[in-house]
Amino acid sequence: MTDPALDPATALVAVAHHRGIVTLTLDSPANRNALSAALVAELAEGLTRCGKDRDVRAVVLTHTGNTFSAGADLRDPPHPDALVDLMRQIVALRKPVLARVTGHVRAGGLGLLGACDIAVASTDATFAFTEVRIGVAPAVISLPLLPRTDPRALARYYLTGERFDAPEAARIGLVTATGDDVDEVLAPMLDGLRRASPQGLAETKQLFTARVLETFDRDAADLTALSARLFSSPQAREGMTAFLERRDPAWVV
């Protein structure tokens, strides 16, 4: 059932309910579900509604098209504070949030993935931290990622911007499980969540998110400032311009 509170003709996030599970679908395929200011605000509103609805047992975050999220929308980027608040909202929500990925994930989209409690990806999904290639750093998205992901692997992929596949994402702790059919992989997980008590889910989630929330509380201000500084730098302007013009930036040798 589609949420009647949202106009499906203009919504960037589609909402559906089924047996206690709300699915929030990033639905901006024209820009590969890039994190625009509008999409971030709409997703935050959808999560707020889920948090207040006693009938919601868990949330599934998924996407239309072949890309879960291409990262920040360079034409209409959200303020770093807004992205930090969205990721923290996912981590702090007293209901499990599961990512269902059947496409590619880049840059800021990996922050959403890292904030989710469970992430399932199709075997043909790909991942890349592309920030260094446009002159910035994966600053605020590190808040959920550094406490949850293998640090040596993260150093490699942060620094090189290399693309990696779903089995590697599972190996380093970025995703929980992979499979040719993500819905088949998710089915027993959703069944388990439906059988769990709301109180049990909320308190259990708090056990493994406490350290992540401590990282937000300690480092969010510094990393937000770093992100803002880098995005306003000359190298970032060159990198973003080169990306939009589909050419190599000036520093490529």
Automatic annotation (TrEMBL):
<dbReference type="InterPro" id="IPR029045">
    <property type="entry name" value="ClpP/crotonase-like_dom_sf"/>
</dbReference>
<dbReference type="InterPro" id="IPR001753">
    <property type="entry name" value="Enoyl-CoA_hydra/iso"/>
</dbReference>
<dbReference type="GO" id="GO:0003824">
    <property type="term" value="F:catalytic activity"/>
</dbReference>
<dbReference type="Pfam" id="PF00378">
    <property type="entry name" value="ECH_1"/>
</dbReference>
<dbReference type="InterPro" id="IPR014748">
    <property type="entry name" value="Enoyl-CoA_hydra_C"/>
</dbReference>
<dbReference type="InterPro" id="IPR051683">
    <property type="entry name" value="Enoyl-CoA_Hydratase/Isomerase"/>
</dbReference>
<protein>
    <submittedName>
        <fullName>Enoyl-CoA hydratase family protein</fullName>
    </submittedName>
</protein>
<comment type="similarity">
    <text>Belongs to the enoyl-CoA hydratase/isomerase family.</text>
</comment>
